[in-house]
Specification:
The complex is a heterodimer. By secondary structure, chain A is of the alpha/beta class. Chain A has a six-stranded mixed beta sheet, with helices on both faces. In chain A, a hairpin with a 2-residue loop joins strand 1 and strand 2. The longest helix of chain A has 18 residues. Chain B has two domains: 70 residues, Orthogonal Bundle (Arc Repressor Mutant, subunit A), CATH 1.10.10; 50 residues, no CATH class. A three-stranded antiparallel beta sheet of chain B has the order 1-3-2. By secondary structure, chain B is mainly alpha-helical. Chain B is globular. Chain B contains five helices and three strands, in the order αβααββαα. In chain B, a hairpin with a 3-residue loop joins strand 2 and strand 3. The chains are: A alpha/beta, B mainly alpha. Chains A and B meet through helix 6, helix 7, helix 8 and helix 10 of A and helix 2, helix 3 and helix 4 of B.
Chain lengths: 307, 135
Protein backbone atom coordinates (compact mmCIF):
# COMPACT_ATOMS: atom_id res chain seq x y z
CA UNK A 1 0.00 0.00 0.00
CA UNK A 2 2.74 2.45 0.94
CA UNK A 3 4.47 2.06 -2.40
CA UNK A 4 1.43 3.36 -4.26
CA UNK A 5 1.77 6.75 -2.69
CA UNK A 6 4.72 8.35 -4.42
CA UNK A 7 3.25 11.64 -5.61
CA UNK A 8 5.41 11.49 -8.77
CA UNK A 9 3.47 13.79 -11.13
CA UNK A 10 2.41 16.03 -8.34
CA UNK A 11 4.50 18.59 -6.54
CA UNK A 12 2.17 18.12 -3.60
CA UNK A 13 -0.17 15.25 -2.88
CA UNK A 14 -2.14 14.69 0.28
CA UNK A 15 -4.34 11.74 1.08
CA UNK A 16 -7.14 11.98 3.63
CA UNK A 17 -5.16 14.60 5.47
CA UNK A 18 -6.60 15.47 8.87
CA UNK A 19 -5.72 17.49 11.93
CA UNK A 20 -7.51 17.91 15.21
CA UNK A 21 -6.76 20.27 18.07
CA UNK A 22 -8.28 18.59 21.10
CA UNK A 23 -11.86 17.98 20.08
CA UNK A 24 -11.78 20.54 17.31
CA UNK A 25 -11.42 19.08 13.84
CA UNK A 26 -9.50 21.78 11.94
CA UNK A 27 -8.84 19.76 8.77
CA UNK A 28 -10.74 16.71 7.58
CA UNK A 29 -10.02 14.20 4.81
CA UNK A 30 -8.30 16.59 2.46
CA UNK A 31 -7.11 15.06 -0.82
CA UNK A 32 -5.08 17.80 -2.42
CA UNK A 33 -3.18 17.34 -5.68
CA UNK A 34 -0.96 20.07 -7.06
CA UNK A 35 0.43 19.27 -10.50
CA UNK A 36 4.04 20.25 -11.18
CA UNK A 37 4.44 23.50 -13.07
CA UNK A 38 1.03 24.87 -12.17
CA UNK A 39 -0.32 27.48 -9.81
CA UNK A 40 -2.83 26.27 -7.25
CA UNK A 41 -4.94 28.75 -5.33
CA UNK A 42 -6.45 27.66 -2.04
CA UNK A 43 -9.52 29.77 -1.42
CA UNK A 44 -11.38 30.03 1.87
CA UNK A 45 -12.65 32.48 4.44
CA UNK A 46 -10.51 33.23 7.48
CA UNK A 47 -10.44 30.24 9.80
CA UNK A 48 -11.44 27.75 7.09
CA UNK A 49 -8.29 25.67 7.64
CA UNK A 50 -6.03 26.94 4.84
CA UNK A 51 -3.09 27.75 7.11
CA UNK A 52 -3.36 24.47 9.00
CA UNK A 53 -3.17 22.55 5.72
CA UNK A 54 -0.19 24.58 4.55
CA UNK A 55 1.64 24.22 7.87
CA UNK A 56 1.30 20.46 7.58
CA UNK A 57 2.60 20.50 4.01
CA UNK A 58 5.72 22.45 4.98
CA UNK A 59 6.29 20.27 8.03
CA UNK A 60 5.59 22.87 10.71
CA UNK A 61 2.66 20.89 12.04
CA UNK A 62 2.14 17.15 12.25
CA UNK A 63 -1.04 15.72 10.75
CA UNK A 64 -3.21 13.61 13.04
CA UNK A 65 -4.23 11.47 10.09
CA UNK A 66 -3.50 10.97 6.41
CA UNK A 67 -0.38 11.28 4.29
CA UNK A 68 1.58 14.01 2.55
CA UNK A 69 4.06 13.82 -0.29
CA UNK A 70 6.04 16.89 -1.35
CA UNK A 71 8.19 16.77 -4.51
CA UNK A 72 7.91 13.00 -4.39
CA UNK A 73 9.19 12.75 -0.82
CA UNK A 74 7.53 12.07 2.48
CA UNK A 75 8.08 14.61 5.22
CA UNK A 76 8.89 12.08 7.95
CA UNK A 77 11.90 10.78 6.06
CA UNK A 78 13.10 13.72 3.98
CA UNK A 79 12.16 16.91 5.76
CA UNK A 80 15.61 18.47 5.34
CA UNK A 81 15.68 17.79 1.61
CA UNK A 82 12.15 19.15 1.19
CA UNK A 83 13.01 22.33 3.14
CA UNK A 84 15.96 22.91 0.80
CA UNK A 85 13.74 22.79 -2.26
CA UNK A 86 10.60 24.47 -1.01
CA UNK A 87 10.09 28.15 -0.23
CA UNK A 88 7.52 29.08 2.37
CA UNK A 89 6.22 32.58 2.91
CA UNK A 90 3.63 32.94 5.62
CA UNK A 91 1.42 35.60 7.03
CA UNK A 92 3.43 35.64 10.23
CA UNK A 93 6.74 36.43 8.68
CA UNK A 94 9.77 34.72 10.16
CA UNK A 95 12.31 37.50 10.53
CA UNK A 96 14.60 38.57 13.34
CA UNK A 97 13.70 42.07 14.43
CA UNK A 98 17.24 43.01 15.47
CA UNK A 99 18.92 42.05 12.18
CA UNK A 100 19.45 44.48 9.34
CA UNK A 101 18.21 43.64 5.85
CA UNK A 102 21.74 42.68 4.83
CA UNK A 103 22.22 40.49 7.90
CA UNK A 104 18.92 38.76 7.22
CA UNK A 105 20.10 37.97 3.70
CA UNK A 106 23.44 36.60 4.91
CA UNK A 107 21.74 34.61 7.66
CA UNK A 108 19.28 32.97 5.27
CA UNK A 109 21.93 32.36 2.62
CA UNK A 110 23.89 30.24 5.10
CA UNK A 111 21.09 27.66 5.11
CA UNK A 112 20.99 27.23 1.36
CA UNK A 113 23.78 25.86 -0.82
CA UNK A 114 21.67 26.69 -3.87
CA UNK A 115 21.55 30.41 -3.07
CA UNK A 116 21.49 32.59 -6.19
CA UNK A 117 23.59 35.74 -5.58
CA UNK A 118 22.51 37.47 -8.77
CA UNK A 119 18.85 36.90 -8.16
CA UNK A 120 19.16 38.05 -4.55
CA UNK A 121 20.90 41.27 -5.58
CA UNK A 122 18.40 41.82 -8.36
CA UNK A 123 15.40 41.39 -6.06
CA UNK A 124 16.90 43.65 -3.37
CA UNK A 125 17.32 46.34 -5.99
CA UNK A 126 13.94 45.82 -7.57
CA UNK A 127 12.20 46.05 -4.18
CA UNK A 128 14.43 49.01 -3.13
CA UNK A 129 15.13 47.39 0.22
CA UNK A 130 17.58 49.46 2.30
CA UNK A 131 20.43 47.06 3.31
CA UNK A 132 21.37 48.88 6.53
CA UNK A 133 17.91 49.20 7.98
CA UNK A 134 16.88 46.96 10.85
CA UNK A 135 13.94 44.65 10.25
CA UNK A 136 12.12 46.32 13.14
CA UNK A 137 12.26 49.64 11.27
CA UNK A 138 10.81 48.26 8.05
CA UNK A 139 7.29 49.02 6.93
CA UNK A 140 4.86 46.15 6.72
CA UNK A 141 5.15 46.12 2.94
CA UNK A 142 8.94 46.03 3.02
CA UNK A 143 8.95 43.17 5.53
CA UNK A 144 6.74 41.24 3.16
CA UNK A 145 9.05 42.09 0.25
CA UNK A 146 12.07 40.96 2.26
CA UNK A 147 10.41 37.62 3.02
CA UNK A 148 9.55 37.10 -0.62
CA UNK A 149 13.06 38.08 -1.69
CA UNK A 150 14.62 35.62 0.78
CA UNK A 151 12.26 32.88 -0.35
CA UNK A 152 12.92 33.28 -4.07
CA UNK A 153 16.69 33.71 -3.86
CA UNK A 154 17.53 30.07 -3.25
CA UNK A 155 15.70 28.97 -6.41
CA UNK A 156 13.05 26.78 -4.84
CA UNK A 157 11.23 24.24 -6.99
CA UNK A 158 8.03 24.80 -5.10
CA UNK A 159 6.82 28.08 -3.67
CA UNK A 160 4.21 28.00 -0.92
CA UNK A 161 2.62 31.24 0.13
CA UNK A 162 0.15 31.45 2.99
CA UNK A 163 -2.00 34.57 2.61
CA UNK A 164 1.03 36.34 1.16
CA UNK A 165 -0.66 39.65 0.51
CA UNK A 166 -2.90 39.79 3.55
CA UNK A 167 -2.94 43.31 4.98
CA UNK A 168 -0.66 44.71 2.29
CA UNK A 169 -1.35 47.73 0.16
CA UNK A 170 -2.16 47.30 -3.55
CA UNK A 171 1.36 48.24 -4.65
CA UNK A 172 3.05 45.55 -2.58
CA UNK A 173 0.36 43.10 -3.66
CA UNK A 174 1.13 43.87 -7.27
CA UNK A 175 4.86 43.29 -6.54
CA UNK A 176 4.00 39.88 -5.18
CA UNK A 177 1.80 38.91 -8.08
CA UNK A 178 4.26 40.13 -10.71
CA UNK A 179 7.11 38.23 -9.10
CA UNK A 180 5.11 35.08 -8.83
CA UNK A 181 4.10 35.45 -12.47
CA UNK A 182 7.70 35.86 -13.56
CA UNK A 183 8.79 32.82 -11.51
CA UNK A 184 6.22 30.71 -13.30
CA UNK A 185 6.97 32.17 -16.72
CA UNK A 186 10.73 31.87 -16.52
CA UNK A 187 11.28 28.63 -14.72
CA UNK A 188 8.11 26.60 -14.71
CA UNK A 189 7.91 26.48 -10.97
CA UNK A 190 5.02 25.15 -8.94
CA UNK A 191 3.15 27.55 -6.69
CA UNK A 192 0.63 26.86 -3.96
CA UNK A 193 -0.90 29.88 -2.37
CA UNK A 194 -3.79 30.54 -0.07
CA UNK A 195 -5.91 33.63 -0.14
CA UNK A 196 -9.27 34.98 0.77
CA UNK A 197 -8.90 37.52 -2.03
CA UNK A 198 -10.76 36.00 -4.95
CA UNK A 199 -9.46 38.47 -7.53
CA UNK A 200 -5.91 37.35 -6.85
CA UNK A 201 -6.70 33.66 -7.13
CA UNK A 202 -8.59 34.28 -10.34
CA UNK A 203 -5.71 36.16 -11.94
CA UNK A 204 -2.91 33.72 -11.31
CA UNK A 205 -4.28 30.28 -10.47
CA UNK A 206 -4.51 27.36 -12.91
CA UNK A 207 -6.28 25.26 -10.30
CA UNK A 208 -8.52 26.27 -7.46
CA UNK A 209 -9.48 24.52 -4.25
CA UNK A 210 -12.28 25.85 -2.09
CA UNK A 211 -11.86 25.14 1.61
CA UNK A 212 -14.64 25.47 4.15
CA UNK A 213 -14.66 24.28 7.77
CA UNK A 214 -11.56 22.18 7.17
CA UNK A 215 -12.94 20.37 4.14
CA UNK A 216 -12.02 20.69 0.49
CA UNK A 217 -15.40 21.38 -1.11
CA UNK A 218 -14.27 21.80 -4.69
CA UNK A 219 -11.02 21.33 -6.55
CA UNK A 220 -10.72 21.78 -10.28
CA UNK A 221 -9.04 23.79 -13.00
CA UNK A 222 -10.29 27.35 -13.15
CA UNK A 223 -11.35 26.89 -16.79
CA UNK A 224 -13.40 23.79 -15.95
CA UNK A 225 -15.08 25.55 -13.07
CA UNK A 226 -16.01 28.44 -15.31
CA UNK A 227 -17.32 26.11 -18.00
CA UNK A 228 -19.47 24.25 -15.48
CA UNK A 229 -20.99 27.15 -13.55
CA UNK A 230 -23.22 29.56 -15.47
CA UNK A 231 -25.93 32.10 -14.98
CA UNK A 232 -29.03 31.93 -17.12
CA UNK A 233 -31.18 35.01 -17.51
CA UNK A 234 -34.55 35.43 -19.21
CA UNK A 235 -37.54 37.74 -19.27
CA UNK A 236 -40.60 36.48 -17.39
CA UNK A 237 -43.41 38.60 -18.87
CA UNK A 238 -45.31 38.34 -15.62
CA UNK A 239 -45.42 34.54 -15.30
CA UNK A 240 -42.51 32.75 -13.67
CA UNK A 241 -41.83 29.19 -14.82
CA UNK A 242 -42.04 26.23 -12.44
CA UNK A 243 -38.36 25.41 -11.90
CA UNK A 244 -38.45 22.14 -9.95
CA UNK A 245 -36.58 19.45 -11.86
CA UNK A 246 -34.18 21.81 -13.67
CA UNK A 247 -30.81 20.03 -13.34
CA UNK A 248 -28.00 21.61 -11.30
CA UNK A 249 -30.03 24.55 -10.06
CA UNK A 250 -28.13 26.33 -7.25
CA UNK A 251 -29.88 29.64 -6.89
CA UNK A 252 -32.80 31.67 -8.24
CA UNK A 253 -32.87 35.46 -8.22
CA UNK A 254 -36.11 37.21 -9.09
CA UNK A 255 -36.12 40.58 -10.80
CA UNK A 256 -39.20 42.57 -11.68
CA UNK A 257 -39.32 41.39 -15.29
CA UNK A 258 -36.67 38.71 -15.30
CA UNK A 259 -35.29 35.71 -13.50
CA UNK A 260 -31.62 34.79 -13.10
CA UNK A 261 -30.61 31.22 -12.32
CA UNK A 262 -27.24 30.00 -11.12
CA UNK A 263 -26.56 26.52 -12.45
CA UNK A 264 -23.82 23.96 -11.82
CA UNK A 265 -22.92 21.48 -14.57
CA UNK A 266 -24.38 23.68 -17.28
CA UNK A 267 -25.24 21.97 -20.59
CA UNK A 268 -27.96 21.45 -23.20
CA UNK A 269 -30.14 19.56 -20.69
CA UNK A 270 -30.50 22.77 -18.70
CA UNK A 271 -31.61 24.75 -21.75
CA UNK A 272 -33.89 21.87 -22.80
CA UNK A 273 -35.50 21.78 -19.36
CA UNK A 274 -36.05 25.53 -19.45
CA UNK A 275 -37.48 25.38 -22.98
CA UNK A 276 -39.93 22.69 -21.85
CA UNK A 277 -41.06 25.08 -19.12
CA UNK A 278 -41.83 27.80 -21.63
CA UNK A 279 -38.70 29.92 -21.18
CA UNK A 280 -37.95 31.84 -24.38
CA UNK A 281 -34.58 33.29 -25.40
CA UNK A 282 -32.59 32.48 -22.28
CA UNK A 283 -29.24 34.24 -22.12
CA UNK A 284 -26.30 32.29 -20.76
CA UNK A 285 -23.86 34.41 -18.77
CA UNK A 286 -20.47 33.66 -17.27
CA UNK A 287 -20.15 33.79 -13.52
CA UNK A 288 -17.29 35.13 -11.46
CA UNK A 289 -15.20 32.95 -9.18
CA UNK A 290 -16.36 35.11 -6.29
CA UNK A 291 -19.98 34.14 -6.92
CA UNK A 292 -19.04 30.49 -7.34
CA UNK A 293 -17.11 30.63 -4.08
CA UNK A 294 -19.95 32.27 -2.16
CA UNK A 295 -22.58 29.95 -3.63
CA UNK A 296 -20.55 26.81 -2.95
CA UNK A 297 -19.87 27.73 0.67
CA UNK A 298 -23.46 28.82 1.22
CA UNK A 299 -24.91 25.64 -0.32
CA UNK A 300 -22.65 23.56 1.93
CA UNK A 301 -23.75 25.48 5.03
CA UNK A 302 -27.41 25.02 4.12
CA UNK A 303 -26.82 21.33 3.50
CA UNK A 304 -25.30 20.97 6.96
CA UNK A 305 -27.99 22.99 8.66
CA UNK A 306 -30.57 20.64 7.10
CA UNK A 307 -28.87 17.58 8.55
CA UNK B 1 -1.12 46.80 -25.08
CA UNK B 2 -4.68 48.01 -24.82
CA UNK B 3 -5.90 44.88 -23.03
CA UNK B 4 -7.45 45.18 -19.60
CA UNK B 5 -8.53 42.24 -17.50
CA UNK B 6 -11.52 42.21 -15.23
CA UNK B 7 -11.37 39.09 -13.04
CA UNK B 8 -14.82 39.87 -11.66
CA UNK B 9 -16.52 39.74 -15.06
CA UNK B 10 -16.79 35.97 -14.87
CA UNK B 11 -15.52 35.48 -18.40
CA UNK B 12 -12.39 33.30 -18.27
CA UNK B 13 -9.30 35.49 -18.47
CA UNK B 14 -7.91 33.72 -21.56
CA UNK B 15 -11.18 34.52 -23.36
CA UNK B 16 -10.98 38.15 -22.32
CA UNK B 17 -7.54 38.29 -23.93
CA UNK B 18 -8.74 36.47 -27.07
CA UNK B 19 -11.76 38.77 -27.44
CA UNK B 20 -9.81 41.95 -26.87
CA UNK B 21 -7.13 41.05 -29.38
CA UNK B 22 -9.85 40.25 -31.94
CA UNK B 23 -11.60 43.52 -31.16
CA UNK B 24 -8.25 45.30 -31.45
CA UNK B 25 -7.84 43.88 -34.95
CA UNK B 26 -11.43 44.72 -35.90
CA UNK B 27 -10.92 48.32 -34.71
CA UNK B 28 -7.63 48.61 -36.59
CA UNK B 29 -5.58 49.07 -33.42
CA UNK B 30 -3.61 46.02 -34.44
CA UNK B 31 -2.55 45.77 -38.06
CA UNK B 32 -1.55 42.72 -40.08
CA UNK B 33 2.07 41.68 -39.45
CA UNK B 34 2.19 43.75 -36.28
CA UNK B 35 4.13 41.99 -33.51
CA UNK B 36 2.38 41.01 -30.27
CA UNK B 37 4.12 41.09 -26.88
CA UNK B 38 5.67 37.82 -25.74
CA UNK B 39 3.69 35.57 -23.40
CA UNK B 40 5.94 36.61 -20.53
CA UNK B 41 5.63 40.33 -21.26
CA UNK B 42 1.87 40.27 -21.53
CA UNK B 43 1.52 38.06 -18.42
CA UNK B 44 3.60 40.53 -16.41
CA UNK B 45 1.80 43.54 -17.81
CA UNK B 46 -1.63 42.12 -16.99
CA UNK B 47 -0.46 40.38 -13.79
CA UNK B 48 -1.99 37.11 -14.88
CA UNK B 49 -0.71 33.55 -15.09
CA UNK B 50 1.53 33.11 -18.17
CA UNK B 51 -0.20 29.80 -18.89
CA UNK B 52 -3.38 31.81 -19.41
CA UNK B 53 -1.74 34.11 -21.94
CA UNK B 54 -0.18 31.11 -23.68
CA UNK B 55 -3.61 29.50 -23.93
CA UNK B 56 -5.12 32.68 -25.42
CA UNK B 57 -2.32 32.85 -28.01
CA UNK B 58 -2.81 29.18 -28.84
CA UNK B 59 -6.54 29.73 -29.43
CA UNK B 60 -5.85 32.76 -31.62
CA UNK B 61 -3.20 30.87 -33.55
CA UNK B 62 -5.56 27.95 -34.08
CA UNK B 63 -8.16 30.34 -35.46
CA UNK B 64 -5.58 31.88 -37.76
CA UNK B 65 -5.81 35.31 -36.18
CA UNK B 66 -2.14 35.35 -35.22
CA UNK B 67 0.86 33.26 -36.15
CA UNK B 68 4.24 32.39 -34.67
CA UNK B 69 7.46 32.85 -36.54
CA UNK B 70 10.30 30.71 -35.24
CA UNK B 71 12.57 32.78 -33.04
CA UNK B 72 10.96 36.06 -34.06
CA UNK B 73 7.78 36.08 -31.99
CA UNK B 74 4.05 36.29 -32.56
CA UNK B 75 2.37 38.44 -35.21
CA UNK B 76 -1.09 39.41 -36.38
CA UNK B 77 -1.72 37.29 -39.45
CA UNK B 78 -2.23 39.00 -42.81
CA UNK B 79 -5.69 37.54 -43.30
CA UNK B 80 -6.76 39.01 -39.98
CA UNK B 81 -9.61 36.90 -38.80
CA UNK B 82 -9.41 33.98 -41.16
CA UNK B 83 -13.08 33.29 -41.52
CA UNK B 84 -15.05 33.34 -44.72
CA UNK B 85 -17.41 36.25 -45.11
CA UNK B 86 -20.42 34.03 -44.55
CA UNK B 87 -19.04 32.69 -41.32
CA UNK B 88 -18.31 36.17 -40.12
CA UNK B 89 -21.86 37.20 -40.92
CA UNK B 90 -23.21 34.24 -39.03
CA UNK B 91 -21.20 35.04 -35.92
CA UNK B 92 -22.24 38.66 -36.17
CA UNK B 93 -25.95 37.80 -36.60
CA UNK B 94 -25.87 35.75 -33.41
CA UNK B 95 -24.29 38.58 -31.46
CA UNK B 96 -26.71 41.16 -32.82
CA UNK B 97 -29.65 38.89 -32.11
CA UNK B 98 -28.57 38.61 -28.49
CA UNK B 99 -28.28 42.36 -28.16
CA UNK B 100 -31.62 42.99 -29.86
CA UNK B 101 -33.46 40.45 -27.70
CA UNK B 102 -32.00 42.25 -24.71
CA UNK B 103 -33.24 45.56 -26.12
CA UNK B 104 -36.75 44.19 -26.66
CA UNK B 105 -36.75 42.86 -23.08
CA UNK B 106 -35.76 46.33 -21.91
CA UNK B 107 -38.85 47.66 -23.64
CA UNK B 108 -37.26 49.55 -26.55
CA UNK B 109 -39.28 49.79 -29.77
CA UNK B 110 -38.07 49.13 -33.31
CA UNK B 111 -37.16 52.74 -34.03
CA UNK B 112 -35.14 53.07 -30.82
CA UNK B 113 -33.31 49.83 -31.56
CA UNK B 114 -32.37 51.02 -35.05
CA UNK B 115 -31.18 54.37 -33.74
CA UNK B 116 -29.02 52.72 -31.09
CA UNK B 117 -27.53 50.38 -33.65
CA UNK B 118 -26.66 53.25 -35.98
CA UNK B 119 -25.17 55.31 -33.17
CA UNK B 120 -22.91 52.48 -32.00
CA UNK B 121 -21.84 51.66 -35.54
CA UNK B 122 -20.96 55.27 -36.21
CA UNK B 123 -18.91 55.50 -33.01
CA UNK B 124 -16.91 52.42 -34.01
CA UNK B 125 -16.24 53.72 -37.50
CA UNK B 126 -15.08 57.06 -36.07
CA UNK B 127 -12.72 55.30 -33.64
CA UNK B 128 -11.33 53.31 -36.53
CA UNK B 129 -10.69 56.41 -38.59
CA UNK B 130 -9.03 58.11 -35.62
CA UNK B 131 -6.73 55.09 -35.17
CA UNK B 132 -5.80 55.20 -38.84
CA UNK B 133 -4.99 58.92 -38.70
CA UNK B 134 -2.98 58.50 -35.50
CA UNK B 135 -0.59 56.05 -37.10
Amino acid sequence: MRGDFTGGDYAIETERLGRTFGKFEAVRDVDLKVTRGTVFGLLGVNGAGKSTIIKMIVGHLRPTSGRISVLGRTLEKDLIDVRRRVAYVSENRYLYEWMTVEESVRFTRAFHDNWDERKAADLLRRFSLPPDKKVRQLSRGNRARLCLMLALSFNPELIILDEPTSGLDPIVRRDFIENIVSEIADEGKTVLFSSHIVDEVERVADYVGIINDGELLLTSSLDDIKASYKRVRYGTNGTRPELSGVPGLLMVENGRHEQVLTVKGFGDEVLGALGARGVANPEVLPISLEDIFVNTVRAERERRAAR
Amino acid sequence: MFISIDPASGLPIYLQIVNQIKTGIALGRLLPEEPLPSVRQLALELAVNPNTVARAYLDLEYEGVIYKRQGAGTFVSAQGVEMSKNERRKVLSELIEKALVEGVNLGLDERELRETFDRVLERIMRAREAEAVGR
